[in-house]
Protein backbone atom coordinates (compact mmCIF):
# COMPACT_ATOMS: atom_id res chain seq x y z
CA UNK A 1 0.00 0.00 0.00
CA UNK A 2 1.44 3.36 -1.03
CA UNK A 3 2.27 5.78 1.78
CA UNK A 4 0.19 9.00 1.58
CA UNK A 5 2.22 12.19 1.78
CA UNK A 6 2.05 15.89 1.08
CA UNK A 7 4.26 16.00 -1.98
CA UNK A 8 3.03 17.24 -5.33
CA UNK A 9 2.75 14.92 -8.32
CA UNK A 10 5.72 16.73 -9.86
CA UNK A 11 7.90 15.78 -6.90
CA UNK A 12 6.76 12.18 -6.55
CA UNK A 13 8.36 10.16 -9.31
CA UNK A 14 7.82 6.39 -9.30
CA UNK A 15 10.81 4.34 -10.38
CA UNK A 16 8.43 2.20 -12.43
CA UNK A 17 7.45 3.19 -15.97
CA UNK A 18 4.83 1.15 -17.80
CA UNK A 19 6.41 -0.79 -20.64
CA UNK A 20 5.04 -3.06 -23.35
CA UNK A 21 4.99 -6.79 -22.58
CA UNK A 22 8.36 -8.46 -22.80
CA UNK A 23 8.71 -9.69 -26.34
CA UNK A 24 12.42 -9.78 -26.92
CA UNK A 25 14.27 -13.06 -27.34
CA UNK A 26 17.31 -13.19 -25.09
CA UNK A 27 20.06 -14.42 -27.40
CA UNK A 28 23.27 -13.93 -25.46
CA UNK A 29 26.61 -13.64 -27.21
CA UNK A 30 30.12 -13.45 -25.83
CA UNK A 31 30.82 -9.99 -27.24
CA UNK A 32 29.15 -6.89 -28.70
CA UNK A 33 27.69 -6.90 -32.18
CA UNK A 34 29.96 -4.91 -34.55
CA UNK A 35 28.34 -2.19 -36.63
CA UNK A 36 28.80 -2.97 -40.33
CA UNK A 37 29.51 -0.33 -42.96
CA UNK A 38 26.25 1.54 -43.69
CA UNK A 39 24.65 1.88 -47.08
CA UNK A 40 25.56 5.09 -48.90
CA UNK A 41 23.09 7.88 -48.12
CA UNK A 42 21.33 6.02 -45.30
CA UNK A 43 20.96 8.05 -42.09
CA UNK A 44 21.88 6.51 -38.78
CA UNK A 45 19.11 6.91 -36.24
CA UNK A 46 20.15 8.27 -32.85
CA UNK A 47 17.68 8.32 -29.99
CA UNK A 48 16.96 7.64 -26.33
CA UNK A 49 17.27 4.29 -24.64
CA UNK A 50 14.82 4.22 -21.74
CA UNK A 51 16.02 2.41 -18.63
CA UNK A 52 13.37 1.66 -16.01
CA UNK A 53 13.08 -0.49 -12.89
CA UNK A 54 11.13 -3.69 -13.33
CA UNK A 55 9.21 -3.25 -10.07
CA UNK A 56 7.50 -0.14 -8.69
CA UNK A 57 9.37 1.78 -6.01
CA UNK A 58 8.45 5.31 -4.97
CA UNK A 59 11.44 7.55 -5.55
CA UNK A 60 12.16 11.28 -5.81
CA UNK A 61 14.97 10.66 -8.30
CA UNK A 62 15.04 9.16 -11.78
CA UNK A 63 17.56 6.72 -13.25
CA UNK A 64 18.84 5.43 -9.90
CA UNK A 65 19.61 1.72 -9.62
CA UNK A 66 21.42 -0.85 -7.48
CA UNK A 67 24.41 -2.84 -8.70
CA UNK A 68 23.17 -6.13 -10.18
CA UNK A 69 19.56 -4.87 -10.51
CA UNK A 70 17.57 -6.14 -13.49
CA UNK A 71 16.16 -3.23 -15.49
CA UNK A 72 13.77 -2.85 -18.40
CA UNK A 73 15.17 -1.40 -21.62
CA UNK A 74 12.77 0.14 -24.14
CA UNK A 75 13.27 1.96 -27.42
CA UNK A 76 12.35 1.93 -31.09
CA UNK A 77 13.34 2.47 -34.75
CA UNK A 78 14.58 -1.11 -35.25
CA UNK A 79 13.56 -3.64 -37.87
CA UNK A 80 11.28 -6.46 -36.72
CA UNK A 81 13.31 -9.25 -35.08
CA UNK A 82 16.55 -7.34 -35.68
CA UNK A 83 19.54 -8.21 -33.46
CA UNK A 84 20.34 -5.44 -30.97
CA UNK A 85 23.65 -5.22 -29.11
CA UNK A 86 23.43 -3.90 -25.54
CA UNK A 87 26.45 -2.27 -23.92
CA UNK A 88 27.25 -0.67 -20.58
CA UNK A 89 29.64 2.29 -20.43
CA UNK A 90 31.36 3.93 -17.46
CA UNK A 91 33.58 6.82 -18.53
CA UNK A 92 35.69 5.27 -21.32
CA UNK A 93 35.24 1.61 -20.29
CA UNK A 94 32.67 -0.33 -22.34
CA UNK A 95 31.25 -3.76 -21.46
CA UNK A 96 29.04 -5.91 -23.64
CA UNK A 97 25.80 -7.07 -22.01
CA UNK A 98 24.97 -9.38 -24.91
CA UNK A 99 22.37 -9.33 -27.64
CA UNK A 100 18.58 -9.22 -27.72
CA UNK A 101 16.13 -8.98 -30.60
CA UNK A 102 13.57 -6.38 -31.55
CA UNK A 103 9.94 -7.41 -31.31
CA UNK A 104 7.58 -7.90 -34.26
CA UNK A 105 6.94 -4.13 -34.44
CA UNK A 106 10.60 -3.14 -34.36
CA UNK A 107 10.60 -2.16 -30.71
CA UNK A 108 13.10 -2.95 -27.98
CA UNK A 109 11.56 -4.39 -24.84
CA UNK A 110 14.04 -6.44 -22.85
CA UNK A 111 15.30 -7.08 -19.34
CA UNK A 112 19.02 -6.72 -18.66
CA UNK A 113 20.99 -6.84 -15.41
CA UNK A 114 23.26 -3.94 -14.51
CA UNK A 115 26.74 -5.41 -13.90
CA UNK A 116 27.28 -6.17 -10.23
CA UNK A 117 30.94 -5.29 -10.74
CA UNK A 118 30.21 -1.74 -11.93
CA UNK A 119 31.41 1.29 -9.97
CA UNK A 120 28.84 3.00 -7.75
CA UNK A 121 30.46 6.41 -8.02
CA UNK A 122 28.51 9.62 -8.64
CA UNK A 123 31.58 11.10 -10.35
CA UNK A 124 31.65 8.36 -13.00
CA UNK A 125 29.40 8.90 -16.01
CA UNK A 126 27.35 5.73 -16.52
CA UNK A 127 25.13 4.99 -19.50
CA UNK A 128 23.68 2.08 -21.45
CA UNK A 129 23.54 1.78 -25.25
CA UNK A 130 21.52 -0.25 -27.75
CA UNK A 131 22.94 -0.61 -31.28
CA UNK A 132 21.70 -2.28 -34.46
CA UNK A 133 23.18 -2.49 -37.96
CA UNK A 134 20.12 -1.64 -40.04
CA UNK A 135 17.10 -0.11 -38.33
CA UNK A 136 14.19 1.49 -40.13
CA UNK A 137 16.41 3.68 -42.33
CA UNK A 138 19.00 1.03 -43.19
CA UNK A 139 21.75 3.22 -41.75
CA UNK A 140 21.80 1.71 -38.27
CA UNK A 141 20.43 2.66 -34.85
CA UNK A 142 22.22 3.94 -31.76
CA UNK A 143 20.13 4.53 -28.64
CA UNK A 144 21.77 6.09 -25.58
CA UNK A 145 20.37 6.25 -22.07
CA UNK A 146 20.39 9.25 -19.77
CA UNK A 147 23.16 9.15 -17.14
CA UNK A 148 22.51 6.46 -14.53
CA UNK A 149 23.31 6.74 -10.82
CA UNK A 150 24.32 3.46 -9.20
CA UNK A 151 24.26 2.43 -5.55
CA UNK A 152 25.87 -0.51 -3.79
CA UNK A 153 22.68 -1.60 -2.04
CA UNK A 154 19.19 -0.53 -0.97
CA UNK A 155 20.02 0.54 2.58
CA UNK A 156 17.85 3.06 4.44
CA UNK A 157 20.38 4.93 6.59
CA UNK A 158 17.90 7.18 8.40
CA UNK A 159 15.16 4.58 8.81
CA UNK A 160 12.38 6.71 7.33
CA UNK A 161 11.12 4.02 4.95
CA UNK A 162 12.93 5.30 1.84
CA UNK A 163 16.17 3.81 0.57
CA UNK A 164 19.14 6.18 0.37
CA UNK A 165 19.06 6.21 -3.42
CA UNK A 166 15.45 7.45 -3.36
CA UNK A 167 15.75 9.76 -0.34
CA UNK A 168 16.43 13.48 -0.74
CA UNK A 169 17.70 13.57 2.88
CA UNK A 170 19.36 10.15 3.27
CA UNK A 171 20.98 11.01 6.61
CA UNK A 172 17.95 12.68 8.21
CA UNK A 173 14.49 11.12 8.51
CA UNK A 174 11.92 13.00 6.42
CA UNK A 175 8.93 10.76 5.80
CA UNK A 176 7.16 13.12 3.38
CA UNK A 177 10.29 13.91 1.28
CA UNK A 178 9.03 17.49 0.79
CA UNK A 179 11.30 19.60 -1.43
CA UNK A 180 9.84 23.12 -1.56
CA UNK A 181 12.36 24.56 -4.02
CA UNK A 182 12.73 21.40 -6.15
CA UNK A 183 16.53 21.42 -5.91
CA UNK A 184 16.81 17.72 -5.09
CA UNK A 185 17.50 18.35 -1.39
CA UNK A 186 14.62 17.72 1.01
CA UNK A 187 13.42 20.58 3.19
CA UNK A 188 14.44 18.67 6.32
CA UNK A 189 18.14 18.98 5.42
CA UNK A 190 18.09 22.01 3.10
CA UNK A 191 19.71 25.13 4.59
CA UNK A 192 17.64 27.21 2.13
CA UNK A 193 14.40 25.25 1.61
CA UNK A 194 12.85 28.03 -0.52
CA UNK A 195 15.99 28.91 -2.49
CA UNK A 196 16.97 26.48 -5.25
CA UNK A 197 20.34 28.26 -5.63
CA UNK A 198 21.05 27.74 -1.90
CA UNK A 199 22.45 31.21 -1.21
CA UNK A 200 24.01 31.59 -4.62
CA UNK A 201 25.81 34.83 -3.73
CA UNK A 202 27.36 33.31 -0.59
CA UNK A 203 26.38 36.08 1.81
CA UNK A 204 24.69 33.78 4.31
CA UNK A 205 21.17 34.84 3.31
CA UNK A 206 18.80 32.60 1.40
CA UNK A 207 17.20 34.20 -1.65
CA UNK A 208 13.76 34.38 -0.01
CA UNK A 209 15.14 36.74 2.68
CA UNK A 210 18.03 38.32 0.76
CA UNK A 211 17.36 41.92 -0.38
CA UNK A 212 19.74 41.33 -3.29
CA UNK A 213 20.12 37.58 -4.00
CA UNK A 214 22.50 38.26 -6.91
CA UNK A 215 25.25 39.96 -4.92
CA UNK A 216 26.60 39.56 -1.40
CA UNK A 217 24.65 41.68 1.08
CA UNK A 218 26.52 44.00 3.44
CA UNK A 219 23.72 44.26 5.99
CA UNK A 220 20.99 41.95 7.17
CA UNK A 221 17.42 42.67 6.01
CA UNK A 222 15.08 44.54 8.29
CA UNK A 223 12.98 42.17 10.47
Can you characterise this structure?
This protein has 223 residues and is an all-beta fold. It has no helices and 12 strands. The strands form 4 sheets. Strands 2-11-10-7-8 form a 5-stranded mixed beta sheet, with no helix packed on it. Strands 3-6-9 form a 3-stranded antiparallel beta sheet, with no helix packed on it. The chain has a two-stranded antiparallel ribbon with strand order 1-4. β7 and β8 (93-101) form a beta hairpin. It is elongated and about 60 Å long. The termini are far apart. 25% of the residues are buried.
Task: Please bin the fraction of helical residues.
Answer: under 10%
Strand order in the sheet with the most strands: 2-11-10-7-8
What structural category arises from helix and sheet content? mainly beta
Strand segment count? 12
Largest sheet: 5 strands, mixed
Radius of gyration: 22 Å
**SS field, number of helical segments:** 0
What's the overall average pLDDT, rounded?
Answer: 79
Q: Using the alpha-carbon principal axes, give the shape.
A: elongated
User: What is the H-and-E element order?
Assistant: EEEEEEEEEEEE
Q: What is the beta-strand fraction?
A: 25-35%
Quaternary structure annotation = single chain
Uncertain spans, ≥5 residues at pLDDT below 50? 1-13, 16-39
The CA-CA distance between the termini, in Å, is 45 Å
